Amino acid sequence: MIRNIWPSFCLLVLFTLLCGFAYPLVMMQFGQAFFAEQANGSSMEKDGKIIGSYLLAYPSQSGKEYFYARPSQATVNDQGILIGAASNLAQTNSKMKENHESAVSQWKQDQINADPIPVEMSFASASGLDPNISYTSALQQANRIAVVRGVSIDDLYAMIGQYRKQVPLLKLDYVNINRLNRALDQWPSPDDRKP
Question: How far apart are CA 101 and CA 42, in angstroms?
Fold first, then answer.
């Protein structure tokens, strides 16, 4: 019986060492060498302090001077920690319809010359943490931000263009709202422009 168990035990130890230690260590070193920013969580920093990740959408910034994220059930607690949550609502759930109608109403109230609402801005993503919106959604929000911040719409369009990316093969243009909002933070605030 020991003769039958011994090879199995040796394989267990071998694969535990290979898959549990060697492979993760090699992948970690590979990630640090070639994709350091992503391997370290794509951290957003402000004044030398980590304030979040570019890979996670945060509930829309307070104030209309920022780009809005997609609707989300995620919240930020008192310590500033993002608590992720997906809505997980079926199409037949009345709460999903209410959320959609609320998002559409809010969009129409906040935007200037931005009708109709882009689909992704009225429904949460599957994870509820998607930081990307379509290029078109960002362009539609630019009018609101230009008016609130008192900046040139052409400057905003240029900034959105700088952060524009494309999904390979599908040719879908998108932007990361965390990167856009961080770029907006580098501009003077609306209050700084007042004489």
Answer: 33
Q: Apex CA 179: angle with CA 36 and CA 43, to 5°?
A: 35
Q: What does the pLDDT read at residue 193?
A: 54
pLDDT digit string (tens) for 166-183?
Answer: 988 888 899 998 899 889
Pair of tokens at residue 115: 């009708």
Is residue 116 reached through a cis peptide bond, with omega within 30 degrees of 0 on the bond before it? yes
In the chain, domain spans:
1-40, 46-193
CA distances in angstroms from 35 to 23, 72, 155, listed in the order given: 17, 28, 31
Task: Please work out, in degrees rounded to the nearest 5, the angle formed at the alpha carbon of residue 30 by the alpha carbons of 29 and 34.
Answer: 120
CA distance 41 to 44: 9
Phi, psi of 160 (to 5 degrees): -60, -40
Grouping H, G, I as helix, E, B as strand and the rest as coil, residue 145 is helix
Mean pLDDT on 96-124: 82
Query: Rounded to 5 degrees, what are φ and ψ at 10?
Result: -65, -40
Q: Which residues contact 127 (CB under 8 A, 6 or more apart)?
A: 84, 86
125 near 73, Cβ under 8 Å?
no
The pLDDT assigned to 64 comes to 83
